[in-house]
Amino acid sequence: MQEKGSISIHTENIFPIIKKFLYSDHEIFLRELVSNAVDASQKIQKLSSIGEFTGELGDLTVAVEVDKEAKTITIKDRGIGMTAEEVKKYINQIAFSGATEFVEKYKETGEEGQLIGMFGLGFYSAFMVAKEVDIITKSHTGGAGTKWTCDGSTSYEISEVEKEDRGTEVVLHIADDSEEFLEEFRIRQILDKYCKFLPIAIKFGKDTEFVKDEEGNNVKDDKGEDKKIETDHIINADAPIWVKSPSDLTDQDYLDFYKKMYPMSEDPLFWIHLNVDYPFNLTGVLYFPKVKNDFDVNKNKIHLYSRQVFITDEVKDIVPEFLQLLHGIIDSPDIPLNVSRSFLQSDSNVKKISNYITKKVADKLNEQFRNDRENYEKKWDSIGLFVKYGMISDEKFYDKAKKFALVESTEGKFYTVDEYKEAFGANQTDKDGNLVVLYATDLDAQYGFVDAAKQKGYDVVKMDTLIDNHFVNGVEQKFEKVTFKRVDADVVDKLIDKDEKKESVLTEDESTKVKELYEKVIADKNYTVTVDSMATDDMPVIITRPEFMRRMKDMQANGGGGMMMMGGMPDMFNLSVNANHGIIQKILKSENEEEQSKLAKQAIDLAKLSQNMLTGADLSNFIKRSVNIVLED
Q: Which residues does the record give as ATP binding sites (predicted)?
């Protein structure tokens, strides 16, 4: 039997377009052809289980072989196979998939969702790398074998051939510009990437193991060489953990799987096993890693699969942005992919799945918080990044997370916002009835301000991560009657303004004189000078940057998008002179203008020094001046 003909082409699936433009990444050809072979093997298993195939199943391992000399790649299976008529139907009529007919026929078994489909557009990805493709196949129903050959044009040849066993061999004659795929390491790389969790064994290449004696030494053969055993290398030897029931898995199983997926990572904090079959099908395992203070480094660690076939690690359309810091696997046949299964397409299921994942994560965090708060607090450095990021970027997550979001005191204690109100509300409520949460971004640099707040009996919380600047701005308006103020944004009495006036030892004229002196000495229009009544043991001069300016500058420094314009604005500072400090009295008593200016300058430089603002010549002059003042005394 020999026959020639033309492939049936329809306007919606023109062959040249499929051949040249459908697949953006050429390596996908191997994923598609191996997936087809696995599907064919699953089909024969299915027919055997329902009694429609009574022969011996035997070994169903799919084999991938490379012949560098012949410039061919062959994918072999012992699956369902095809008759000559089926080849014409499923191969020549592009985009007519045998899966549709097969699933329709056996859908009453309720397992049709496990089948991807034997042949369809995926097969034609072969022509991205091959100048000619042969299919040699024999149906499980018996009969002669069939060979189909096509050179990438719309012409084909089909003939009868001898084939001993059922199944299909796809032989790719690799084009000159695609010879990279004849390298064994390249093929193994692709198989490891896309196929390592497929449900039918896939073999490629060999594993070599040296024979050892009882003492662990290599055994020699008759030629005096190390004796070794070669075995088939199985690509997908590791079972996909996400398809198993959580009740059948131990913590060690989850940790072992994580180490195989992310060998360079520390152990995760905990994990979530996803398993839902309505209103969509979704399985997977998501791990909470120990997050570094660099979000970009931690992203793109969630892998999207469709029925155990790797699709992509670009999951921004299905996983909320803040959860892209998680690691793990999501597998769903209901995620809409483009025709080449290369990327996501938006539809209602994507939004449903995204909402489901967000809810599961929130529920898991809440469970951890309620059931083991001590351990939850120990992990807050990493957990907090997820929670804060989620609260400012996802409204639904915020509604859940406010119950388990924590602030950490500089004393090392943790509070929810409600707990913080209860603990400090009486002392840290300002004249307008707002709870003021004082926070520090750098405990060492802001030590003096933190200490001053504590001297007043106030608590200060740590906000020193990359996300905290955005978090404070994002959620402040959502917390009722709660405001955040950086501890070095003003003198402490102004940060928590209780409308309590402190007495000043200065007269109005003296205050004016002091203010004018310091304005003259600072000689900088970016400084606003005020004379304030403070405790006698407070600093003589305190330099602060207004809360608004600090926030904008911090956000701009951390890449805060719309805040980039702040980079061009000059720094604005408040210079608060302590009216009740002894230095001020010394200045007023001196009638020497040079002496007054020297003392004022010394107090200003002390304030700058405490803020790490004194450098270069100014620092050198300050040191010399300090030595002279000591000698004068």
A: 32, 36, 77, 82, 97-98, 168, 341
